[in-house]
Amino acid sequence: MDKTVGVLGGGQLGRMLVEAANLLEIHVNFLDAPNSSAKQVSYHDGHVDGSFKDAEAIKKLAAQSDVLTVEIEHVDTYMLEDVAKTADVQPSWKTIRTIQDKYLQKEHLQSYGVATAQSVALKEPSKTELSAASKTVGLPLMLKSRKEAYDGRGNFPVKSTDDFEPAIQALGGNQDLYAEKWANFKVELAVMVVKTKDQVLSFPTVETIHENSICKLVYAPARGVSETINKRAQELARKAVACFWGKGVFGVEMFLLPDDTLLINEIAPRPHNSGHYTIEACPVSQYEAHLRAILDLPLDEQDLELREPAIMLNILGGDTPDSHRQFAAEALKHRRTKIHLYGKGQARKGRKMGHITVCAPTMSEAEELIQPMIDYADRGKPQSTSTLSSRSKEQALVAVVMGSDSDLPVLQPGLAILKKFDISFTTRITSAHRTPSWMAEFASTAASNGIKVIIAAAGGAAHLPGMTAAYTSLPVIGIPVKPTIGDGMDSLLSICNMPKGVPVATVSVNNSINAALLAARILGVSDMGIRKRVEQYVHDSEAEVREKDRRLLDMGADAYVEKYLSKK
Amino acid sequence: MDKTVGVLGGGQLGRMLVEAANLLEIHVNFLDAPNSSAKQVSYHDGHVDGSFKDAEAIKKLAAQSDVLTVEIEHVDTYMLEDVAKTADVQPSWKTIRTIQDKYLQKEHLQSYGVATAQSVALKEPSKTELSAASKTVGLPLMLKSRKEAYDGRGNFPVKSTDDFEPAIQALGGNQDLYAEKWANFKVELAVMVVKTKDQVLSFPTVETIHENSICKLVYAPARGVSETINKRAQELARKAVACFWGKGVFGVEMFLLPDDTLLINEIAPRPHNSGHYTIEACPVSQYEAHLRAILDLPLDEQDLELREPAIMLNILGGDTPDSHRQFAAEALKHRRTKIHLYGKGQARKGRKMGHITVCAPTMSEAEELIQPMIDYADRGKPQSTSTLSSRSKEQALVAVVMGSDSDLPVLQPGLAILKKFDISFTTRITSAHRTPSWMAEFASTAASNGIKVIIAAAGGAAHLPGMTAAYTSLPVIGIPVKPTIGDGMDSLLSICNMPKGVPVATVSVNNSINAALLAARILGVSDMGIRKRVEQYVHDSEAEVREKDRRLLDMGADAYVEKYLSKK
After folding, report:
1. Which candidate among A8, A269, A350, B33 keeps its CA 20 to 30 Å from the CA of B318?
2. B422–chain A nearest CA distance, Å
3. How far is A19 from chain B (nearest CA, A)?
4. Is A504 helix (H, G, I), strand (E, B) or coil?
5. Phi-psi region of B50 (alpha: psi -120 to 50; beta: other; left: phi over 0)
6. CA gap A228, A230 in Å, rounded
7. Hey, of A315, A508, A527, which one would you mutate to test binding to chain B, going by the most B CBs within 10 A of its CB?
8. Does B329 touch chain A (CB under 8 A)?
């Protein structure tokens, strides 16, 4: 905490970095223009006015700082290498040099066995070279500039040979290009990784949605992605960052392919847009994590956990110079919004001017809260991304398992209740007797797959609910199914009379409605949205019975039976 | 958002205010010394250097601001009244004038029917006057300065007539004193209230713990305080603030007396120490709420809800000038701590130099996380407040109800499980047949009293679980109790065979252990601490049975029965 940090660049990332530093009284000097975004919220005489591309200015910054770091990777790494002889530069200039050339970055990752999209460098920006590359990576492909490319600049999708000419023309001014195999991804994921002096830690896996190659939305955690993939993505991101030099946070962008394999897209050696959500959603933000990493202050996994699901929406510059402030004024009208404006002055079309984060106890509540702001961002656009943003299938909260598909008709009324309550569920056949190991596997991985409650239906010997309960620590609700022979008491007792130590919440025979309502009440313990829907249901049921009572009073018993119950 | 705010005073409250303002690009000018805490994080040329007691400086600040507000109530309200002729001062100078004189504040509140401790003003600071006042308010009493008193300065506890002399001597320099009836409170509560142009809104009720009359700890929400009292405290706080003039946030401190009545202790017309927790724990912090209120920006109840339980610990100056930075360095070693240092330079003993906030999914987890920092704060003190801080009884999460006390022996093994899992519970007798209206009242208010799960035991006709479920939207677990006649099947079927619409999670006859384990699994859906304990229990049970299997293999069946089962 007593060391002084020098930062090359003082834009919004620097601003959010110094907001974290101010809380810890960590002194940060910025090298940037006099009234840059970061300097506005950090008043002292240690800043350096100038460009982060000016060698003399960098030396001046280094002279008055204990540790140098960067807010942007497009710096002159030869200057950094020179400065590093006498100053502590984090992460290392070698890391920045490798990463800032995207082709070099991918080669480096592959040499460490980290999966990335297949890429071929073009010796020169020519149709011949591009054609040759297309033979290797196939078509379509993405033609990319190796350097100075971000927010979609420097990318050109090449769908057929007809695109060779326009692609080379569009990016031809840049001498260094490469062709990348087209990734037909299901979803884009990202993980913020923290490299400290002795550990590589990660924040949760998030889902990113880009529009015109600019990050628009970030969902934390990624929606419709199992806990297993969430963990695998974090592992891959940590593995990728581990092969670089030095300390600090890294933004790792990935593709999840249809067969659930993961590919690294690209890495940023600094705080990243996909990690803004951490300010509100995690105990320690990516900015504070960066400071802790480069200053050797303590940090641990627990500090990076998600407190609540969060969604981040970028505020991009619109058609007028104050469009971002209008956007913020609109966002203030909605509830639970945390607005971050960056102090960048007048908006330019498409420029990142701020962002909004919404946190809520559940992702579905967060989605409801952010929707009006997405609609505002999409106003007047031909095709709204509202649909895009809700395209991910939601993580199932309830697993409804049965020993046989013949139990399905009994379950249907219960499933209708789950739908009515907007509770996501999955239905599976896991027989205790015919598929014992699949049943065990499903039950024992349910919790780590994000399932919160299991409903199990079984008839006769009816072992499924109890056996499922034996393999999980989740609450299990058992529905006794009436078998073809007998009244179902055998099923009921087999499910209810569990030994001490392994409970099953038993409902009456064939009563899938009560099983579903019980699941809703259980989820409602912590999800106020679901609790409200349970309360509404109780209220509606009461009104319905009161209405029947009124009719009975009006009509008398005989007419009532005649009219309403005669089919019986 | 386009208005400029001027603030009298630029200490830590101003600093946290401008941190909120920076996010919204709201321009804030401070009147204070050149390098004051708030100015350090807000760089522009609109600040005024000087004292907030200097009339000329206030006029200069007013000239370059659209709205004036205060960070401290000890300002010259006659200057403010003068400035208010041409400037918008929020809250009104009348509010600040009334509040800054604590006796006037109490008289004002009482005139609006708001409960405060009985108080008598001393005409002069003399033993005679104090003796006369003690006849009215009784002994012990608290002798207080009417003005310029905060953080325990200006308070003197008068326990007997022997204290008259020292009390007058201690506070005698101040001409304006008053005697206040001693409040023998159970707990001190506080509520941050936001007065907007057309609404009075409140943050949750928190518990404050003072040491040497300085706020040390804040627990949000207040521990061991029912939802009803939490709501009543918010209502009282809103009622109190409603009788003042103007807009802004107000800190309302209260006493909760042994008979559960609430008394206002005092009010601050500004952001308050008891509201620091809102920065991390609520969607909108008290600072942003203050800005939104004085600038007529939108705000709603939902923005002030608690995201997670939180505990705030003040970092007070210690024996060395850098003691607060040492404290922060210590806090960094612990997990999930959010540290706020105020940039106030060298520490003075007892001065507020910063604070730490810890948020967690449950209060018990937050208590565990903050404890090492409380221990650090208390190091070397004769009597640690560690005990103090954990003295409040925790809110019961599980209600265990029974129709008759004769069911209690059946419930005991289940209660032991709840204790083992560290799950707070309450046991009540609510008979469906003998106390139907009490049963209905208990069940229908359980959710609003913070109960999350109900366990209901009943035998024979066994209506209690089902009737309880009919009056609540919480999950209800039913334990069939074996009656004196029969095997308990009557109880089991009466509990299990509920009509569609009202579910009861039924366990087997007399199996309170499974009922408790089911409650733990249900709470474990959202409380990871409890889920881990369930997993540990499952693991231990398995180990226990494996150990029995090993013994049986070693000994053979006959020896095993002889040694372990012969008592049967």
Report:
1. B33
2. 17
3. 8
4. coil
5. left
6. 5
7. A508
8. yes
Whole-number Å distance between alpha carbons of B249 and B271: 6
Q: Is the pTM of this model over 0.80?
A: yes
Distance CA B79, CA B8 (A): 12
B124 at A interface, C-beta within 8 A: no
Put simply, the answer to whether A475 touches B515 (Cβ < 8 Å) is: no
A187-389, CATH topology level = D-amino Acid Aminotransferase; Chain A, domain 1 (3.30.470)
Interface contact A161, partner B, CB < 8 A: no
Asked if the Cβ–Cβ distance from A521 to B42 is below 8 Å, we say no
Min Cα distance B343 → chain A (Å) is 6
Is some CB atom of chain A closer than 8 A to the CB atom of B236? no
Disruptive mutation site among A1, A16, A23, A445 for chain B (greatest number of B CBs within 10 Å): A23
Per-residue pLDDT tens over the stretch B147-166:
887 666 788 899 999 999 99
Where does residue B3 rank: exposed (0-12), middle (13-18), buried (19+ CB within 10 A)? middle
Angle between helices B363-378 and B323-332 (to 10 degrees): 140
Mean pLDDT of B454-469: 94
In B171-230, the residues whose Cβ lies within 8 Å of chain A are none
Beta strand A398-402 pairing with A453-459: parallel
Query: Where are the domains positioned within chain B?
Result: 5-89, 118-181, 187-389, 400-524, 529-565
With 0-12 / 13-18 / 19 or more C-beta atoms within 10 angstroms meaning exposed / middle / buried, residue A514 is buried
Please tell me which of the candidates B336, B504, B537 has its beta carbon nearest to residue A283: B336
Give the DSSP per-residue string, A143-178.
EEESSS--TTTTEEEE-SGGGHHHHHHHHTTSS-EE
Task: Choose among B518, B558, B561: nearest CA to B537.
Answer: B518
Query: What type of residue sits at position B469?
Result: A
If you classify domain B400-524 with CATH, what class do you get? alpha beta
Q: Residue A255 corresponds to which tokens in the numbers above?
A: 């593709």
- In this structure, which CATH number among 1.10.530.10, 2.102.10.10, 3.30.870.10, 3.30.1490.20 belongs to the domain A118-181? 3.30.1490.20
Lookup: tokens for A211: 């529009």
Q: Where are the beta strands (DSSP E) in B282-412?
A: 310-316, 337-341, 352-359, 398-402
CB contact (8 A) between residue B507 and residue A523: no
Task: Flag whether the ipTM exceeds 0.85.
Answer: no
Nearest-CA neighbor of B156 among B133, B190, B189, B188? B133
Is B474's Cβ below 8 Å from some Cβ in A? yes
| B298 shares contact with chain A (CB less than 8 Å) | yes
Q: What's the gap in Å between the CA of A213 and the closest CA on chain B?
A: 26
Does the CB of A513 have a partner CB in chain B at under 8 Å? yes
Tell me the C-alpha distance between A105 and A86, whole Å: 26
Q: Which of B26-40, B87-101, B374-388, B430-444 has the lowest mean pLDDT?
A: B374-388
Of B203, B206, B231, the residue nearest B293 (C-alpha): B203
The whole-angstrom distance between A501's CA and the closest CA on chain B is 6
Residues of B in contact with A453 (CB under 8 A): 525
Same fold, B118-181 and B187-389: no
CA dist., res. A563 & res. A400, Å (int) = 37
Render pLDDT for A184-225 as a digit per residue (tens, 0 to 9): 899 999 999 999 999 999 999 999 999 988 999 999 999 878
Chain A residues 400-439 within an 8 A CB cutoff of chain B: 413
CATH entry 3.30.2310.20 includes domain A398-524: no
Say yes or no: domain A5-89 is CATH 3.30.720.210. no
